[in-house]
Amino acid sequence: MGVKAVILALALAFIGQTAMAGESIKIGAIFSVTGPASFLGEPEKNTAEMVVERLNAAGGLLGQKVELIVYDDETDVNKCVLAADKLLKKDKVVAVIGPTTSGNSLAIMNKFSAAEVPLVSCSAADKIVTPVNPWVFKVAPSDRHAVERILADAAARGYKKIAIITVSDGFGQAGRAVLQELVPAKGFNLVADEIYGPKDTDMTAQLTKIKGLEADAIICWGTNPGPAVIAKNRVQLGLSTPLYQSHGVASKKFIELAGESAEGLMLPAGRLIVAAQVAADHPDKQVLMDYATSYETIYKQPVSTFGGHAWDSLYLLAEAITRGKSAKPADIRANLEKITGFWGTAGQFNFSAADHNGLDQSAFEMVVIRNGDWQIVK
User: Fold this and answer.
1) Topology alike, domains 3-142+286-363 and 144-276+364-376
2) Is the pLDDT of residue 129 over 90?
């Protein structure tokens, strides 16, 4: 190749790179990178950045660079609202993933209907997608499915009397409503309904009340640090009643916070935290191991189901954009709704006009904490 040809090739490569950089597809993200929910939001941010780097290394989407704009809501609802406004009005993003928490998702979701921009929430509350908002989707398995999974396990063990203790935030309130509905509907007797605050540091009063009611099992609904405090208080009180936790604590952070008090506790969780234990022929095995290996290699931290929500959100958006050959918000929304048979870290997604979560009870495994780690309940 002559000198002129080399110069021309380099010039064309430079022009191509410049064009890709100048015509980016802007995707927004709101995560609780700091604040009480940082153990959820930090792995989400890390994962989102990892996925975007992967997408761009493979040529972007539709030949365009993907630009990720991340805001930290600091686990504060007002800062989440401000972040949503900034993404929609200033940054002009084509879609947004997050927020991390249910309360923050519920606070901003109607803004996306007004702006006609799709939101893919990383939160669990059923109310985010029930009733269906045409512009709002979510990738975290629903609290309803988690409750059903817990109660199926409790029924198999012959438990009859159930006590619940829930946190008074958006996630806890949504879970409490489902528990109040399904515990009696599934034939159990709801013997206690206790509540604690997100900043409470001692729940012995609530657990003492429960102890006197001779419940067969306790279901705790919340995210760290409250559930870890409850696990410790239970041991301190000498309470032997089995304790179920929600999927809101499905990260190693809970085990670290609860210490030895976590031993033997059960909860419904996505397969991601037990990826190595999933059968080799399971259709989700490859996705789970790909994410887990990539994340742990780059960040030197164990994966959590919450980081997996960011992985699923971005790859679902990539699928919708690629399938529709368009990065216009309305086209992304329409094509998200058409995605079926898509395996993510949370399970198989089957979206429709009537279902903007796309997951069912099969997204969960019942896991038990043994020797400081997760084990699938056989």
Assistant:
1) yes
2) yes
Cis before 302 (ω within 30)? no
CA torsion, points 157, 146, 77, 314, in degrees to nearest 10?
Answer: 140
**CATH code of domain 3-142+286-363:** 3.40.50.2300
Beta bridge partners of 219: 164, 244
- Picking from 39, 102, 31, the residue whose alpha carbon sits closest to that of residue 304 is 39
CA angle in degrees (0–180, nearest 5) for 146-128-287: 60
Tell me the C-alpha distance between 88 and 90, whole Å.
Answer: 6
For residues 105 and 139, is the Cβ–Cβ distance under 8 A?
A: no
Q: Are 65 and 19 in contact (CB under 8 A)?
A: no
What are the pLDDT digits (tens) for 249-258?
998 999 999 9
- What average pLDDT score do residues 270-295 get? 95
Q: Which CATH number applies to 144-276+364-376?
A: 3.40.50.2300
How many angstroms separate the CA atoms of 355 and 224, rounded? 29
pTM, entire model: 0.85
* pLDDT, mean over the chain: 93
